[in-house]
Design brief:
The chain is an alpha+beta fold and 497 residues long.
Length: 497
Amino acid sequence: MKGKIKKVVVVGGGTAGWMSAALLKRVLGNQVDIELVESEQIGIVGVGEATIPPIQHVNAVLGLDEAEFLRETKSTIKLAIRFENWRKQGDSYYHTFGAPGKSQAFCHFHHFWTRARQAGDTSSLWDYDLNYLCAEAGKFAKLKVDDPMWELHYAYHFDASLYGQFLRKYSEQRGVKRTEGLIELVNINPESGHVESLVLKDGNVIEGDFFVDCSGIRGLLIHQKLGTGYEDWGHWLPCDRAMAVPSERFDETLPFTRSIAHSAGWQWRIPLQHRNGNGLVYSSNHYSDDEAADILLNNLESKALGEPKIIPFRTGRTRRQWNRNVVAVGLSSGFLEPLESTSIYLIQSAIVRLIHLFPHAGISADLVDEYNRQSKREYELIRDFIILHYYLNERDDSQFWRDTRNMDVPERLTEKIGLFRSNGGLVQDQLDIFLESSWLQVMLGQGVTPRDYHPIADSLTDAQLKEKLVNTRKLKREPLPKIPSHDQFLEMFCKPR
């Protein structure tokens, strides 16, 4: 396609649509016109309420006031995910956004801890993680520190529908045009095969040079019109349905997500300022919808505020997330269950990647191929990290867990597990959103124990090693008495000034 991109049409609203519109407008400004088409008659999934730290980059680029953002979206702070019953029933561990101890050049802190453990030390790796300590104590503050020892990395829980509304207001104030209407027809150029225009039910015709498909799982443009194709990953991730329901908030709002494994799936619990978000991700081959509803509603611990909503899905990815003059963003680009809260990140990543590779003089095969290469790799890496939780389990209470433990997993994942089990080695692949500390926590939490450690850990005497660990634990705990509770922070920080 030759010629400059003068107008971008975003198909669909919600978080995917309005984040796409907001970022494109903020970065590209008046270089392109942006029009978003959505219909109030089409509901949004709206269960993606937990995020990971890169969401802060989006908010920073948009120039959002954090206090206003927290108020308007009913946000709370997320320091970690607590995984319960994943390794075995009754067991739990945290995947935090922090990192244990303080690493040095060529040798991560956990190698020193591994050496100490082999000599009889009984401390947990998480004892050296400030994120964990604050999560357990229900505390949070925005710490301004020079030493990474006291860094407190965080993300947010928010109401996805309110977040979409917040971004809509932001976008419209900056010149994004919103058009209400149901799309009845998609016109394709017979020569190029590119989308030319959308015809709405009321007869309105929306023309564009480039289209961002945020129409959800149905993929109105990328799938229904362009027939792009889908790569199914159900053989690795067998859950294919989710059920969501809000419930009354608790008296105390904890700064972490809970992920509670059941016999054929897992339950999320996400605290917001005004309610809890709850859901069950499950395999329809093992639970009927009625059984799933029974499990979910009997494990809320607070009054349900509605009826459970069923969301069927198929884990996998769209084979070409940029096809012709259409880029799929959000659920139209693929689906990875929300175990590690990556849904909103993948929206962010897709649109940032598009901005980096945005066509100037026209769409070229080089741009399209590079976008698709990066998207494919990113999805695969997140997929492998999610598989990790299922594969490394010791549960024997159901066929579901036995099957996931015995499945064949991607070769690269096998290599990473083997490396860590051998000598505690960690590798972060290019485009992997999960840091080495994330892989470390999940593998340890799921029961993988390194047989060896890095030789640098032997540079200390036994007494020096003991002193190092004692001092690190002491230093990590030092800020705790001065940090307010999570609820106190929200009350103080979100107060209109």
